[in-house]
Amino acid sequence: GGLFGAGGRFKGGTDPIMEKFNESISFDKRMWSQDIRGSVAYAKAIGKVGIITDDEVKLLVDGLGKVAEEWKEGKFIIKKGDEDIHTANERRLTEIIGPTGGKLHTGRSRNDQVATDARLWTVEAERDVLKDMALLLTAAANYSKEHIDILMAGYTHLQPAQPIRFSHWLMSHITPLVRDAQRLQEMIPRANQCPLGSGALAGNAFGVDREFLAEELGFEGVTPNSLDSVCDRDFVVEFLMWHALMLTHISQFAEDVIINNLLKCIDIDDAYATGSSLMPQKKNPDALEILRGKAGIALGKAVGFTATLKGLPRAYNKDLQEDKILLFGAMDSVKDCLAIATGVIVTMKPNPEMLMKALSPEMLATDLADYLVRKGVPFRETHHISGACVRLSEEKKVSIDTLSLEELQAIDSRFEADVAKVWDYEVSVERKNSIGGTAKASVLKQIEDVLAYAKTL
Ligand code: ARG
Asked: How many domains are there within the chain?
């Protein structure tokens, strides 16, 4: 065992399989810089209360700087017995500066240490993800602006419903991602609280100034209860759940594009599609399928980790160690997914001809009802009248817009010659000009709002 496994209390060596089972260095080395920063702050904090001298603080801080250099240059050698990033850094520090290295951990536990490192890492990752979100939101909003004039069929229950703007449809997938970005912003202050100085569970026996530690490390505040501090992984759950919800939104987008691709309404760029090993004609929307697939897995992991937490006794338990595998994995997945989704959006090509073909005059049946509403007929009546027109067109096997004025008037005498103006998709779309509607001005407003928000990220 390493520093701790072979500590004073232990006589025998650790079973080699146990060492492999127990180690976390293989993944938590990714937090080397957070671990060094936490230790630098902690060295200063125990210096401040006189546990170590100013010279010792300097020795520790300089030594930690050297360890950091080794990591940065890829020269840090992980040795047998380096159980995790915390023991590895302390082992190397002590090799470099001698026994003073052994003073660093005074009053500290790996329990408050790992919680600190993981929170530092998470906050940085979340800020980084916000930048990626900003790129996607900006790219998608600009793309929507460029394609503002294209109309398409809107569906409910996958049944043709009403004409909408293509951009309105795309912005309908961007709007949830704006909420996701907002949610992420709201999560950061909760993660950004400093657990260092909580000790193993009971608190710090040397009176370290936890507010000083928080300030040194850029945290917004200190965690309020030492037992909770070492086992609170809400910030991990929040990120995993956030990840699952954000991917759920991207998955819905992916599904919509796949359907539109099938309808030949949207062409996916070759960069995000693949061929078939057998069928030469194939171009499969693999990127979108993988995005869709990742959403389910992400949810499973979020639920799985929550299950890990639910039965834990206070305070730290080793069950918590693998939180970082999930955290890092989610972070990598988020970055890949956002990059791919952004790429798919900016390179996809709407096919205006096929989009128009997918529109059919029956999708203006509501507009026909609205026409009579504007002449003072109650909507419940006009809905019925318009329904009768749909039925007549179906019986005659003709398109509803080709029914003659006489035929319409036979259904309801209040139809007049100006009813012909109903059969215009653009007019239909432009009538939806309230906030959030599909009229050009309403969609442009949505686009401008998203662009302005993305700039703040
Ligand atoms: N490697 C451990 C983890 O990632 C660090 C905390 C170890 N604490 C302990 N009491 N064994 O969770």
From this structure: 3
